[in-house]
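Recall that a protein's primary structure is simply its ordered list of amino acids. Everything else, from secondary elements to tertiary packing, is in principle encoded there. The following example makes that idea concrete.
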Amino acid sequence: MAYLSKIEWTEKTWNPVTGCSKVSPGCRNCYAERIAKRLQKMGNPRYKNGFKVTLHYDLIDTPLQWKKPSIIFVNSMSDLFHEEVPLSFIQRVFKTMEKAHWHIFQVLTKRSKRLKEVAPNLTWAPNIWMGVSVETSKYYYRIRDLLEVPAAVRFLSCEPLLGPLPNLPLEGIHWVIVGGESGPNARPMKEEWVISIKEQCKAAGIPFFFKQWGGVQKWKTGRKLQGREYNEMPSLNRKIKPIMMKLL
């Protein structure tokens, strides 16, 4: 499953896995669950299982068919490191990302403990960006787990931001995304929380990307913070060749 994406910090999505389960407060109003159930009702064969974890083996090699270099968000409709995704499947996804070295792949998880556990068994090509979700300070342990993974780019997705994130452990982090929750029952995000993160990133010299204020009608609240948009990203070196990187 591959689509041009409306997500501001990527270009395409690739979903060799669909479906997930909730693990923390950031999951409460999961957009992917809403979309999956809607597609199930519409009779989309990829979502015949609704939001249950489903492996799409026939989609593993899809990015190899895209010749134009793209920034690709992996599993926008799932979590690659979900407990029900076998390590062998994860390894095949990573092998495709390594082969498709002209693309940049963005992988995001809330399951940092499993990420840390299986990282030594994966090949970390330099076009693979690895991130974790951090919605409140309770989940700083995800950052610590991420820092033990030898990804060329490590990033944080503070979305939906549900509380202040003081003293973020940013050493070894290369990018931070912040966004408010959107859709039905969206929980509010305070401006001071966002400004604090922005200032921490500035002090650490880390690119800061402000995705959205969110809300029930996110197009009304927009993306401007203190009168401007923040679209900073790590350097995009698309010509880089794969390098074998494994934890010992």
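The radius of gyration is 17 Å. The CA atoms of residues 186 and 211 lie 15 Å apart.
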